[in-house]
Amino acid sequence: MKHRSSIASGLALSAALLGLSGAAFGDDDGYDFFARMWVGSKAPGVAPVTDTRYLEECGGCHFPYQPGLLPARSWTKLMTDLEQHFGENAELPADDAERISDFLVNNAADQANYKRSRKIMRSLRPGETPLAVSETPYFIKKHDELSRKMVQDNPRVESISRCEACHTRAETGSFGEEEILIPGFGAWEDD
Ligand code: HEC
Ligand code: HEC
């Protein structure tokens, strides 16, 4: 009996591995297990958020922007002035702020081996310290074909900072073109 169950669990394991590798090759911008293991090659997208405190504290008002979307220097600056945060007071108790700041800095775009993080970093001048993802040159260039009607005047979007309104897999760190659905306008077709 012991022998049989080890064969069974061996089979289950291979099936799980096959499933994972299938996902890895079928999806070219998603986060997946194997992407993290590809030594020397860049994983697609940006790393998904793993810190629950960050999700709770910073994800309450808006999409929890992945740390890999801004350089460490931007996160440090943003975290030192939470009292005046885009017109809101987002102040946190010191221990929470410290923990979240560490998480952001340690996983920032300049620390990450992810494709989008690299591209964001490459678009910045040395020392340039944007306080918003939507102010980075890479982001601006990627979104320059969107109209007012699709964003500001669209009641289901309203702000370009609402990544999740259009990027259906934003939470996983994936922003691939084929996953974009603009509310009221449908799938994005580049021309
Ligand atoms: C009280 C509400 C509130 C909390 C809490 C909050 N924010 Fe914000 N945040 C805002 C508002 C409002 C904006 C501006 C969004 C817009 O323009 O649509 C913003 C924007 C941002 C942006 C720029 C988005 C862009 O356009 O690229 C970043 C980055 C950001 N917040 C990070 C954080 C972090 C990190 C925390 C946690 C420490 C946090 N926020 C907590 C209200 C909040
Ligand atoms: C109103 C809808 C909308 C919102 C909101 C939005 N995006 Fe986009 N995003 C797009 C479109 C459209 C493109 C262009 C796709 C193309 O043609 O390559 C794009 C492209 C991108 C790309 C490049 C993808 C690629 O494959 O080249 C990234 C990364 C990205 N967005 C991240 C974000 C982040 C982060 C936010 C929030 C701060 C955000 N977007 C908010 C619609 C949106």
Task: Explain what this protein looks like in three dimensions.
With 191 residues, the chain is mostly helical. The protein has one domain. It is 41% helix and 2% strand. It has helices at 2-26, 33-37, 52-58, 72-80, 94-106, 115-123, 137-142, 163-166; strands at residues 181-182, 186-187. It has a two-stranded antiparallel ribbon. α4 packs antiparallel against α5 (94-106). It is globular and about 45 Å long. The N and C termini lie far apart (61 Å). Mean pLDDT is 84; it is low at 1-40. The protein binds heme C (HEC) (2 copies). One heme C binds at residues 69, 116, 133-134, 142-143, 146, 150-151, 157, 160-163, 165-167, 175-177, 180, 182, 188, 190.
Helical stretch count? 8
Q: Compute the separation of the termini in Å.
A: 61 Å
Helical amount among residues, as a percent range?
40-55%
Main sheet properties: 2 strands, antiparallel
What is the number of E strands?
A: 2
Structural class: mainly alpha
Strand order of the largest sheet: 1-2
Beta-strand content bin:
under 5%
| Count of distinct structural domains | 1
